[in-house]
Task: structure prediction
Amino acid sequence: MPDRTLTLESSPTGIQVSVHVGPYVEWLVTNTSKTVPDGTDITVTVPDVVGEPQTCEELAWRFSQSTVDAASPSTNRVRTVSMGADHTFLATYLQQLYFPTRSHTRRKAKFEAKADEEVMELRITALKSMMVRQQIDTTAEQAEMERQVGRYLNSLDLFGHELHNYRNFSQELYGLKRVHTDVTLSKEAGLKAQKWVNRNLDSDILEGVARILGVPLIWPP
Result:
């Protein structure tokens, strides 16, 4: 069977269009054409808004409608075309204010205010005491955890590389507690524990370490 041609057009031209052919996607700029095998289904997606204000406000274009062979107008930006014949896809845009209530000069001034070095320094200074307190609290909490785990592991007469690995496991659980809670924490902790079991650590001792940290393990199936 002969190949078919999909012609991609837009008003204005120069619009970047995504073209999906099966699992593959290709980005093309209008106006252009693409040749595909006969019978191929192609999905064309165009952006909602194109353009960016620079020296004036009226530099943006908003999607209005799309047509296939000038016979099927639609306000859908995503159109699927079955290539049993040659087809022409046209996307039409209307020029408008990019931000009708905010001029480009106001946006520029707001951005520059955020990037002002003096403002940034004042913000960092204001947050510094809070950051220091958080670090002190975290360090004290971690040190207490390490002491408790250390006493437990020493009571088992562990030493060398094996002792180091159990301590590594406790550090991993401590890190998980800072980002997870409840069932998610227990499942993630169980995955970590299984990893160490696969490296010949004792599951009962791992359970003991987890109990000290208050983390019940849910072992993977």
